[in-house]
Amino acid sequence: MTDLPRMQHIFASGLVSAVGVSVAYISYTQEPAAAYLFPRIISTVFVVLALWTFGKALLGRTKIGNGLVREAMINIAPGLAVSLIFVFWAAKALGFYTASTIAFFVLLSLYDPAPHGELKSWIKRILITAGFLVVMYGLFARLLNVFTPREIFF
Amino acid sequence: MEFLAYFGDVFTPINFGLLLIGTIGGLILGATPGLSPTMAVALLIPFTFKLEPAQGLILLGAAYTSTVAGGAVSAILLKIPGAPANIATTLDGHAMAKKGQGARALQLSFLASAVGGVFGVLLLIFLTPVLAQWALAFGPSHLFWLAILGVTVIGSLDSSSVVKGLLSGCIGLWLATVGFDDIMGAQRFIFHDAVSGGINVIPALIGLFAIPQVISMFAGGRRSLDAEILTVERHPISKAFSEVFSRLRALSIGTVTGSIIGLIPGVGGQIAGLVAYDQSKKMSPERDKFGTGHPEGVIAAESANNAMVGPSLVPLLTLSIPGSPTAAVLLGGLLIHGIFPGSDLFDNHPDVAWTFINSMLIGQILMCIFGLYVAGLAARVAQVPNAIMAAVVLGLAVFGSYSVQHSMGDVYVMAALGTGMYFLERFGFSAAPLVLGLILGPIAEANFVQGSMIANATSSIGSYFFTGPLNIALIAVAVASIGYSVWLELRQRRHTAKEEAVAKKGAIS
Fold first, then answer.
1. Closest Cβ–Cβ partner in B414, B427, B445 for A9
2. Could you give the number of structural domains in chain A?
């Protein structure tokens, strides 16, 4: 195992262990104790397994999981950023349909292999986005009667 | 023969229409690489809220059945398995397509899927009521151990690392305790308003299965799908029909292997297809032809992965223990309609249970008929760029999660769990045991608390939970599944180390 995945494994298993220890701490200290009986059992097993994994990562004996690859992370970053902005801010602030249409178009433009310099591919992207909006509106607003937060256009 | 009484319910216009939609949609979704059957079923759950329970289950069951079979289309025509269950189909299916026998391979694949699928559903029909009655003998301690068994079996058998699989199960069990405690009404682990009412299973399922796929598609960057669709030439269906039944050895090996593997909780279709392919190859006098476009390879793999579907629902419908990740999602679909698997399902909702099971039987036949016609279209859909698929799945995940309770909190939970799961998967953790923990956690806790109360009134907790033949048997199975997985992992590790040593030696000399 190279140093980078090893450090990543240490970090990931350390994070999981920290969550496990926090869960165990809360389970054993919060009241009423009867409400935390089951979480105590779970968190004890959780901590044991998490520390076992952390120990293996520290010793460099983790065999499973390839970790994060730089190139993949560079590819993921813009898409993940757009998705998280869409979910945690835009969907509520701009309305579901407006935000999802914008997010769809941005994601399509970021990851579509068709050349960015051609007008034809941009027209295609706009048409696909419009199709997406129509289908989502038809499915959720018309078929399922889902009332989504604050809509600008709908 | 109670199931015969409800056969007509499958053919009401709405039920049959949903069966058709689920089948055709499932075939197309199944053919799309990156859209696993589990994810397809999870994304469909919000569409079942407005339906009657039986109707919702018909849609989900049809999608489950046909996504598994639909995965063969891209496996054969594009050499990209639509789902992990179709990996073995690529070996001979694509080779046949390259020889200009694509239509023959597709026909054999759908016919073998139908035969395996019908056999699997018949097993489901005859085993389920017997086991459901047996489940009546289960008390709180047994139900507690059953829930724990469900998590440990999937955690140890479905993961590449036993410890990380079990750890994933623990994370799921912990997440299930977030929110109000049922007995004392105490708030537990509420670190954000979004989870004040606990973690809703449906948004969690959507997030855990759909979002990692979306991020994986982002990871590929602006890459086009460099797969060439092989042309499909006409082939008479009657010939394929007689060929499937003339190759009875491969068909029966696939069907029996798939059915047995389906009954074991945690062992998925991927293993069923590969084991059946391997066994069929070993027992065939034409074993040299396997891998070069031999029809028996396609027949064995496809009959196995569809034969697995029905039996994988047996532990779910009788004991609430999902046999596969997709069965876990189906359990979520049952619970949102207020239906609990086990004897309650067959005693109080026989119409729901039998209409659903019968629809799966009819669905196998529809899948075979439509599969042959939809294959060409499905192969085209399979070429849709990842960018579109990722954006569509993200949109469906957000809208689907929101529609559960009209709550933004559910959308946040979906996104947070999904993003976290992608990174955990990169380090060997697995979504299936986490989901099982989340679903079975409340069952485990409720029975643990109930059992503790009984134990306090009668004997000690130790003797209540650790004595009695059924408790001991359940604990033994859980321990055995962990032990077996550890043994498999160690054997695999030794094998890999040996291979590395041989390669190193070869490089030095």
1. B427
2. 2
Q: Is the pLDDT at B448 greater than 70, yes or no?
A: yes
pTM score, two decimals?
0.81
Q: Are B241 and B368 in contact (CB under 8 A)?
A: no
**Nearest CB neighbour to A38, from listed B398, B408, B448:** B448
Cross-chain residue pair B426–A32, CB shorter than 8 Å: no
> Closest to B403 (Cβ–Cβ): which among A45, A50, A146?
A146
Per the rule left: phi > 0, alpha: psi between -120 and 50, beta: everything else, B203 is alpha
Based on the fold, state whether residues A74 and A54 are members of the same structural domain.
no
Residue contact B222–A144, C-beta within 8 A? no
Binding-face residues of B in 154-173 toward A, CB within 8 A? 160-161, 163-164, 166-167, 170-171, 173
Tell me: pLDDT of A98 over 80.
Answer: yes
**Is the same domain home to A32 and A91?**
no
In this structure, the dihedral spanned by the alpha carbons of residues B46, B51, B56 and B62, taken in order and rounded to 10 degrees, is -100
Q: Is the pLDDT of residue B171 over 90?
A: yes
The pLDDT, as a whole number, for residue A49 is 93
**Does residue A54 sit in the same domain as residue A76?**
no
Q: Where are the alpha helices (DSSP H) in B32-101?
A: 37-44, 53-77, 87-98
Query: Is pLDDT at B91 greater than 70 in this prediction?
Result: yes
User: In 3D, which of B183, B137, B169, B167 has the Cα closest to residue B445?
Assistant: B183
Residue A14 in domain:
yes
Residue of B219, B428, B449 with shortest CB distance to A76: B219
Q: What contacts A69, CB < 8 A, 6 or more positions away?
A: none
* Chain A residues 39-78 with CB within 8 Å of chain B: 39, 41-43, 45-46, 49-50, 52-53, 56, 62-68, 71-72, 75-76
A150 part of a folded domain: no
pLDDT at B265 over 80: no
Residues A53 and A79 in one domain: no
pLDDT at B3 (0 to 100): 74
Using a CB-CB cut-off of 8 Å, the residues of chain A touching B44 are none
Under an 8 A CB cutoff, do B189 and A87 touch? Answer: no
Query: Alpha carbon of B311 to those of A14, B3, B7, B473: distances in Å?
Result: 39, 16, 20, 21
Cβ neighbours for A134, distance < 8 A, ≥ 6 positions apart: none
Q: Looking at chain A from residue 76 to 135, which residues have their Cβ under 8 Å from any Cβ of chain B?
A: 76, 79-80, 83-84, 86-88, 91-92, 96, 100, 103-104, 107-108, 110-114, 128, 132
Give the range of the structural domain holding residue A109, as residue numbers without chain letter.
70-143
The pLDDT assigned to B450 comes to 87
Q: CB of A22 within 8 Å of any CB in chain B?
A: no
Residue A122: inside a domain: yes
Q: Are residues A50 and A91 in the same domain?
A: no
Identify the residue whose tokens are 């409720």.
Answer: B446
Are residue A78 and residue A132 in the same domain, yes or no?
yes
DSSP at A114: S
For the segment B332-346, the average pLDDT, to the nearest whole number, is 78
- Residue A12 sits in the same domain as residue A76: no
Residues A42 and A97 in one domain: no
Residue carrying structure tokens 């073998």: B112
Residue type, B344: D
Q: Do A108 and B184 touch (CB under 8 A)?
A: no
